[in-house]
Amino acid sequence: MLMTGAQILVEELIRHGTKTIFGYPGGTVLDIYDELYKNSHRIEHIISAHEQGAAHAADGYARVTGKTGVVIATSGPGSTNLVTGIANAYLDSVPLVAITGNVAVSLLGKDSFQEVDIVGITQPIVKHNFVVRDIAELETVLTEAFYIASSGRKGPVLVDIPKSVQRATYEYTGKCSPQKDAQAPMPDITDAVEAIKKCERPYIYCGGGVLTARAEEEVLALSKRLSAPIALSMMGLSSIPASYELNLGMCGMHGKAAATIAQSKADLMIAVGVRFSDRATGNVSEYTKNCTVVHIDIDEAELSKNVRPFIELCGDAKLILKEMLGSLPEKRNDEWIKTVLKYKEKDEFETGAEQFRPKNIIGCVRDFSEDDTVVATDVGQHQMWVMQHYAFEKPRTLLTSGGLGTMGYGMGAAIGGCIACGRRRTVLFTGDGSFGMNLNELATAVSQRLPLLIVLFNNGVLGMVRQWQHLFYGERYSNTTLQRKTDFVALAKAFGADGCSVSGLSELRAALERGFPDDGPFVLECRIDMDEMVFPMIPPGGSVRDIKLG
Amino acid sequence: MSERFTVGLIVTNRHGVLNRIAGMYSKRGYNIDSLAVGETEDPRISRMTIVSTGDEYIRTQVVRQLNKLYDVKLAVLLDEDNSIAVEHLLIKIRTNGGGNGAITELLNDYGGKILEFGDHFIVADLTGKPEKIQEFIEKCVPLGIIELCRSGALALSTGNTNILSIKDYLPPEA
Fold first, then answer.
1. B18 close to A120: Cβ distance less than 8 angstroms
2. Confidence bin at B99 (pLDDT 50/70/90)
3. What is the C-alpha separation between A10 and A8, in angstroms, rounded?
4. What is the CA angle A427-A428-A433, rounded to 5?
5. Would residue B163 count as lying in a domain?
6. What residues have CB less than 8 Å from B171, skipping those under 6 apart?
7. How far apart are CA B41 and CA B169, in angstroms?
8. Which of B29, B57, B78 is the last residue of a domain?
9. According to the model, what pLDDT value does residue A521 have?
């Protein structure tokens, strides 16, 4: 059937199962938006306040659903505004297709109005990108884009479509299939199985790859089979229920001490879907001094990149773990479990029960939430507190910026996550610094009537940077004391939302009991002390010996 | 141990491919010593030879990262024992109006030939292993090099492994 480029795009989005897209209109995407208008009964478009918010929303949507998120922006500034969102998705391996408009093919390369080389700009932060100069390629390119984004190690793909291509017409088949990569052979697990059988103190380390491969059950079964404790990278949080006895929680710089100590005592580590980020390992040579590493990852380039494993297993984590479970006998190891649980017990440091401190605040909000409530965070101290203290029970309920550490990620992600989970109550934990970056998306949450509970930790400072200044820069608080006078409740109201401010636990509990609107966001400002810090902490490049507990 | 290594690639012949490959090297901080690219017997596919320097870690990373790129159909390490690498040199050497006996002798020794005699210079070309080309250039320095141009190494495997045949990578016929 003969169709315009804009029509082909909309048909391809629908054919790939896209129900909701995020974006912002502009000059070079007018034709696409015209088609979206005509097809609004088939595909929903959410307009953000800024393209960055739309990119984060598509990212959050993808993390919750496991499907590819789609974001659309116009050329020039519209497309450059996507850059942080695309980089964020790249670092966290989130499947995302970004569609950008561009000037007509005849105007490309002439520094035309709102023209930038977005394909050049985004090249280092995408799995792949395309500029479609000929409408004959459009259908194939879009099919490939969805395939690349969601296959292997997932990630963002950008498709730049000049306006003239959107307006041109071509025969649409609707049957294009991607050029699939040859199926990688299943790796030989014999050596890994032998090593695991021989070890005495096994330790499982899970990352985001466990969630993408949906290998949560297999990891849990392996842990039970081997009496192996599990530690999670930040990206791996939510994959294993917090209530599972051998789940030690997050490891790394601000991870639980038990996770770090158990790792240092283990003689074998089964690392699943992790990339051994410097924030997770600290000093790499100390990190693997005592243990053999079996590394399972779908991306071959991650094997031996940061940590030299004893055994590399490249492939789908779920399939590999299933095969392993078929060859590994039950191995009870009460001694090791006892030791590990002792570490875990020591982890539960007490804050005074009634103190208005992060751990207690997060605990109250957790009591108010369901196990499947989607929780988004921004970046900084509040993010680490959530990782440490919020009990995640269900996979894909956490949206957080891991690799890139994007302050301002939270608002967009919470919007995307809320829409993805059927517009049910979604919680965003943020800080006054992060919130300040993209609070314009409150407008989106209001117009979309999204029941977001925004828990805003307000300490008046950029807490994480200030913490480093306190510990490593002689308490010289350069530019981290904000001295703003923002009235967040008034701000929420100005956006058409509501809010309240609390500074004690009883006030917080009362607010939670009163409940929140079902048809719009609510800003719950928690005024906390600026000297709160995140502990435990292993200073950068340090090891288990350097843990600061407070 | 850091040493020179050569990677052979089969890539799609599309605009921007070179950029993506060079970008991978630069973003990871690896230096490209030489790069040669040209069409294969099928114009949809190009072949590249990239020489760089690094230890075993870098060699493994380079090949694995290259193989992740969408436009790279295959990248393999071409080890010295099982491959042949050749480079092409064009060089313009001063003759100062005098005789060119020394130059001719040098060219004969290295198997090069003179392409053009100018008033005060000759243009010669030479093909051979990159080390041989390097050696030749060093010997030309005292004679007076006006300008030169090197192609970068081209490499093919000589054994039965790491053969970069394009036939498995041709796009389906439209």
1. no
2. low
3. 6
4. 160
5. no
6. A179, B12, B44
7. 13
8. B78
9. 98
pLDDT at B97: 64
- Is the residue at B141 inside a domain? yes
State whether B46 and B97 are in the same domain: no
Give residue-wise pLDDT tens across range A377-416: 999 999 999 999 999 999 999 999 999 999 999 999 999 9
Task: Give the pLDDT confidence score for residue A353 in this predicted structure.
Answer: 76
Q: Are A42 and A15 in contact (CB under 8 A)?
A: no
What tokens does A208 get?
């985001």
Residues B36, B102 within the same domain: no
CATH at residue B147: 3.30.70.1150
B59 and B113 co-located in one domain: no
Residue type, A306: N
Distance between CA atoms of residues A120 and A538, nearest Å: 38
Choose between B160 and A115: higher pLDDT. A115
Q: Is B90 helix (H, G, I), strand (E, B) or coil?
A: strand
Q: Which domain holds residue B52?
A: 3-78
Choose the final residue of a domain: B78, B113, B130.
B78
Residue at A214: amino acid letter: R
Residue type, A36: L
How far apart CA A192 and CA A324 sit, in angstroms, is 8
Smallest CA–CA separation between B57 and chain A, in Å? Answer: 8
Q: Is A179's CB within 8 Å of B171's CB?
A: yes
Q: What is the rounded radius of gyration, in angstroms, for the C-alpha atoms of chain A?
A: 24
Are B106 and B49 in a shared domain?
no
Question: Tell me, what's the pLDDT at B119?
Answer: 85
Same structural domain, B65 and B89: no
Q: Please answer yes or no on whether B65 and A301 come within 8 Å at the CB atom.
A: yes
At B173 the pLDDT is: 63
How many domains would you assign to chain B?
A: 2
Q: Which residue type sits at A418?
A: C
Report d(CA A60, CA A413) in Å as an integer.
Answer: 4
Nearest CA in chain A to B66: A301
Residues of A in contact with B65 (CB under 8 A): 301
Same domain for B143 and B94: yes
Q: Which residue of A has its CA nearest to B70?
A: A128
The minimal CB distance from B16 to the residues A119, A124, A301 is found for: A119
Does B137 map to a domain? yes
Is the backbone peptide bond immediately before A536 cis, with ω within 30 degrees of 0? Answer: yes
Average of pLDDT values for B52-65?
95
Quick one: B9 and B37 in the same domain? Answer: yes
Q: What is the CATH number of the domain that holds B11?
A: 3.30.70.260
- The tokens describing B113, both together, are 């030939």
Report the pLDDT value the prediction gives residue A325, as an integer from 0 to 100: 97
Cross-chain CB nearest to A301 (options B19, B68, B172): B68
In terms of domains, do B68 and B126 share one?
no
Collapsed DSSP state (helix, strand, coil) of residue B156: strand
Tokens of B42: 């099928």
Q: Are B142 and B133 in contact (CB under 8 A)?
A: no
Q: What is the pLDDT of residues B161-170, one digit of tens each?
A: 777 888 877 7
Predicted pLDDT of residue B172: 67
pLDDT < 50 regions, chain A: none
Residue B131 domain flag: yes
| Closest C-alpha among B45, B15, B20 to residue A108 | B15
- The confidence score (pLDDT) of residue A350 equals 63
Q: How far is CA B43 from the centre of its chain?
A: 20
* Tokens standing for residue A47: 């307009």
pTM of the model: 0.95
* Paired tokens of A165: 């291509």
Judge: B70–A119 Cβ closer than 8 Å, yes or no. Answer: no
β strands within A378-519, DSSP E: 398-399, 426-431, 452-458, 498-502
Q: Give me the domains of chain A, ranges plus CATH numbers.
A: 2-171 (3.40.50.970), 190-347 (3.40.50.1220), 358-527 (3.40.50.970)
Could you tell me the end-to-end alpha-carbon distance of chain A, in angstroms, rounded to an integer?
A: 67
